[in-house]
Predict the structure.
Amino acid sequence: MKKSVLLLFICWITVCFSFGQSPIIPSPVVYKIAVGKMSIANHFSINSENLPAEIKDFLVQKLVDTYSIQTVISASGSDLTFKKITNTPPDFYSITINDGVLIQYSTSASCFYAVNSLLQLIEGEKDSYYFSKAFVQDYPNFQWRGLHLDVSRHFFSVEEVKRFIDLMSLYKFNTFHWHLTDDQGWRIEIKKYPKLTEIGAWRDSTVNGHYSASPRTYSAERYGGFYTQEQIKEVVAYANKKFITVVPEIEMPGHSRAALAAYPQYSCTGKQLEVPGLWGVFEEIFCAKEESIDFLKDVLTEVLTLFPSEYIHIGGDEAPKTRWNTCPRCQKVIRENGLKDEHELQSYFIQEIDEFLTSKGRKLIGWDEILEGGLSPNAAVMSWRGFEGGIEAAKQKHFAVMSPGSHCYFDHYQSKNPNEPTAIGGFTPIEKVYAFNPIPPGFSEQQAFFILGGQANLWTEYIPTMTQLEYMTYPRALALAQVLWCKQKPPFEAFKKSFVDYHLTYLKRYNVNYSNALFYSQLTIFKNKNGLKLNFKGASKEDAFQLETRTNEKNSQFSENSYITENDTILLKRSKDNQIHTFNFKLTSKNSPDPAHFELKIHPAIGLPIELITKPAEQYKGDGALTLVDGVIGVTPWKGNEWLGYDTTQIEFIVDLTRKVKIEEILLNFLQDDGSWIHSPESIQISVSTKKKKWRNLQIQQFIASQSANAKKAGMKNAFEQNINLKGRFVKVKVNCLKYIPDGYAGEGKTPWTFTDELILLYKE
Ligand SMILES: [Zn+2]
């Protein structure tokens, strides 16, 4: 196998090709360039021999629609010829561009990949297009290269879904995970149960703005839509022509409010509830009784006729057990099957579905919660709460797809620019996506065998339109394509150069509304011994950073309306008057249409050294200890990078005031966003010391949000505040987090998240 590949390679070395920067994304295994061009004449002649029909149609259409290049297809065409080869790695292809183009491929899919690579190699302008002479050899690393789309929270038309698939195919993704059902809408016609779409596809209202906005308001507009079975078949056939498998997701037992609005008899209580217009997790889920499971098997029977995919996704995530705990029918199933608890009942539920799918020759895949209570024999796991679910599955010799929130959630923010449109939270810039590796460190080759690949998820609570969908997907999807395709991906800077040199133009050709986040000017905050240092890095010469207003504070070197540009740095000193001051900055950037406004709070604790005894979670570690005292107050709705996020039951850190002072007061802000399982803590203990040897402990205080003038001045909406009035140099903060999410909240009974930022200390010499 390896020998034939090597032979091809050697024969081209003799024609003086040399390694070059590949314009192709994802980067091919080999890209070599030679001197000279091959011009692409109008009436480009394509040899039809060995060219699969659907690929011919695709190529001809792309050349004429995107480049206005007319083609002539015949058995004697010589500009582009194809050859099928054997004995290669899976989905192998090569492209040789000399005086003509020769594509050699092993499978129809790889022929399609080759054609897509070739399209990316077109250079020049209309009427003078050309290829640079080059040699490409390529094959993918992972077999599951996926993008997910949630059409429940917001609905996307058949045409929009096709466009999403079309753009995926340009970057060699091969799996489209279609999230068809959820609480806020059922989107697939099921003939046996017409009310699923008559009732379940429509909601009477939708929450405005972010979930955690207060007060919460709703637009009272009827919203919804669904796909008929004919339309589903059309989309599946469309994707198939682009060598993309559509994996449908039918959520169970949770995220089922839309289905239960249509058929309440399959819930535990039978109570008639509406299709909700609010995001989150709901207690009403499918009952585990036989009738409910039979209903879902009926639904899946129709689903299987529409989707030929090997895997069928059944959700399995975020199913609160509140109803199951008290439902006589669920308790009866537990007793009769000798189950230990409701977690084992969920496992029993999934196993019933697993057996059903297996009997139909299909495989079940579900979110990592399906591990709880025991993994069903044939199930594959999609790991979203981190890597652990995928690691556990692989160790049990089950297949897994890695889709961790830390790297693969494209509904998160992608830049720190305050003008970013509202997103769910979280911070996943393109650099982070690029750093993703689906194979966990320390995995053996045998364990890695069970990792099918990776996938990015596009949950659409805050993605109401196609324009916004493209903005959130691109260019992050290009980084993910690199991760999943390349065995050894080039360094990020090389990828960025390819993107800038070739793919900005390429995406523009397809009118993709990509994000410019990579080209925004950047403001970076550093710690300084006297406070903070701000570094401004303009992305272009026109970019500038300017102080607009500030409250009465005279010790800064920075005055109103003074600009800094390019690589300037300014110093912001800790306030000496023991007050909290507000500085408003404006950042103008050529690449972002509106100026961005930043607010910094200059207070007596900015830039102070802090020892984080408890480490924040990897995906919410912000800029470490500096995040707590960087003058950027954590906001609601959260943007993902200005808070420190913990999933521990206690948080401990020590602030160093650098000398003995009289400490008067502490303010510490927390995030309350129960839809995201983020809760205020239970209580806090403050201790003071001069040499970190003996600590004077203040009384533990229950957490109560302060309404004081200082909290307001600091812009803290949910702050803990305590008078200290002790002399000392070190302040120890011990936060006792809630141990369990209280009843009635999303994720009840689980460990909540605790998010904190900013810390303010008031003190005198
Ligand atoms: Zn029940």
